[in-house]
Amino acid sequence: MGVRVQTADFDLSMEVAALTTGRTDIGAIVTFTGTVRGEANGQPIALMSLEHYPGMTEAELARVEAEALARWPLSASLIVHRVGDLKPGDNIVLVVAASAHRQMAFDAAAFLMDYLKTRAPFWKKETGADSAGHWVDARDSDGEAIARWSSTG
Asked: Is beta strand 74-82 parallel, antiparallel or unpaired with respect to 43-52?
């Protein structure tokens, strides 16, 4: 179980191996890796800058990970979120949920990602090829996705 906020890239295979090596209680591992797109709304993106409030962000991610652990019987979980300046193709976020059974791992991973997209304390700024940047807000569909978890347990 763990949460990390970092500037360095991560390696999916190494992260999963660190969580699962030697474990025979895990029957399903669900991962999600988010990357920087090269365009948004038809406009090219040259850079995505992610900011956070150190200490507060890690505490909030740990809180939501604990909520996932309370909702689903996970054997292991991990959230890695990068901050700083990222280029198209760079990794942004990794979520890993491991459980004895697949549906629990899928649901927990979806819950964690829905939370990260809507409520995690990160601020994202996309900068285009013309150096004009704008802050990114959550989309309506992200809000609809997180709403489903308020009525399930």
From this structure: unpaired
- How many angstroms from the chain centroid is the CA of residue 136? 16
Give the whole-angstrom CA distance, residue 104 versus residue 139: 26
Task: Report the DSSP beta bridge partners of residue 5.
Answer: 81
Neighbouring CB atoms inside 10 A of 103's CB total 11
Please state, in angstroms and as integers, the Cα–Cα distance from residue 132 to each residue in 36, 43, 86, 113, 126, following that order.
17, 11, 16, 28, 8
pLDDT at 153 (0 to 100)? 45
Element (H, E) at 116: helix 102-118
Q: Is 30 exposed, middle or buried (0-12, 13-18, 19+ CB in 10 A)?
A: buried
* Residue range 51-64: mean pLDDT, rounded: 94
Calpha distance 88→69 (Å, rounded): 32
Provide the greatest CA pair distance for the chain.
52
In total, how many domains does the chain have?
1
Domain that residue 55 falls in: 3-151
| DSSP code of residue 139 | P
Q: Which CATH number characterizes residue 41's domain?
A: 3.90.1170.40
- pLDDT tens figures, 93-122: 999 999 999 999 999 999 999 999 888 899
